[in-house]
Amino acid sequence: MNTNPYAWIEQSLATIHRADWYRSVQTIQSRPGAKVILEGKEVINFASNDYLGLAGDERLQNDAIAAIQEFGTGSTGSRLLSGHRELHRELERAIASTKQTEDAVVFSSGYLANLGTITSLVGKKDLILSDIYNHSSLKNGAILSGATIIEYPHCDIATLTAKLHQNRHNYRRCLIITDSVFSMDGDLCPLPELLDIAEEFSCMLLIDEAHATGVIGKTGAGCVEYFGCTGREIIQIGTLSKALGSLGGYVAGNSNLIDFVRNRAPSWIYTTALSPADTAAALAAFQIVQQEPQRRQQLWANVDYLKQLITNNLPKLKILPSQSPILCFQLSDAATAVIAGKYLKAAGIFAPAIRPPTVPTSRIRITMMATHQLEEIDQLVQALEHFNL
Ligand SMILES: *Cc1c(COP(=O)(O)O)cnc(C)c1O
């Protein structure tokens, strides 16, 4: 055999191109915000997870700079060796206080928080029930754990119950995993029903509040707060990189759970601690989330304004059900979605096409920010009207 063992990569890339699934990066040349410079052109930004507009906030920057000046740029080791600083503990206390849990532990990203937590909680003898629309980090955490995985149809409580009836007794532990706000759709998981089922079948419940923290619930504590489930036994994952404007992830819950994760999660034990700058910025963000509820109110006012305009002016638009600042318009295929994304960009609107394999059906995904001006939302709707979506 003298065939090139890497030749298949070029062929696979060609297949990706043919399916209109090819992706590449686009450069932002300004600070994060409601308006950004994208590849040299000013656009209104409907593509960011920076829901509260904190990623460009002076206060986060100042605290990050101060942390660098005091502690340097790198944390130099894992938390259990040389990487731990008092700042990490302060941030973990702020997370636990927001979530009203006994404790929390921060990871270097939300992705790593899911991988580490899921693999520490279940193994070969165990069962995972997973919503089919779950984020990649939940899906890959499940695979890495070695547990048996059963996917249930999106938010389908009846099928979930049936699967548990059929399978629960064959396994030692069982873990139900779900996004709380579904990241590519914008709808919410049925948390109270999931909690009831978890109790009935003696399952642990892990929810990923990546898009909910800072955004949903009266104090921004997430869907657990929104559904009135605060204080119930739930494993709450989240990220510091969306509404909190920094980088990192966390798990919050009771102190035994967190203690266990600190002793068992490989993606926490064997990776370098969160940098001082990221830690300090996230800590500043939690303070702002608590002290400035008006940011969250403005975000929701903007969401309502956009929904109202769509109802009035764009009756044909196929909007996926949403209870969050994520709004998606379904399109017939990947090529149409790419054209729509390009058209919007030419019209000064940054709203990306999301295609398979990220999602089952192609769509344009809009994320609202607290810092969008009403005129900017008007411009989005005008562009959509123009494109006749
Ligand atoms: C973004 C996201 C993550 C990953 O968080 P990072 O901190 O960016 O790694 C995990 N879960 C969900 C649902 C997400 O949307």
Would you kindly provide a brief summary of this structure?
The protein is an alpha/beta fold. The protein has 15 helices and 13 strands.
CATH class of the largest domain: Alpha Beta
Which of globular, elongated, flat, extended, rod-shaped describes the shape?
globular
**For the terminal residues, how far apart are their CA atoms?**
53 Å
The overall pLDDT average reads 96
Low-confidence stretches: none
Function: Catalyzes the decarboxylative condensation of pimeloyl-[acyl-carrier protein] and L-alanine to produce 8-amino-7-oxononanoate (AON), [acyl-carrier protein], and carbon dioxide.
Cofactor: pyridoxal 5'-phosphate
Catalytic activity: 6-carboxyhexanoyl-[ACP] + L-alanine + H(+) = (8S)-8-amino-7-oxononanoate + holo-[ACP] + CO2
Protein name: 8-amino-7-ketopelargonate synthase
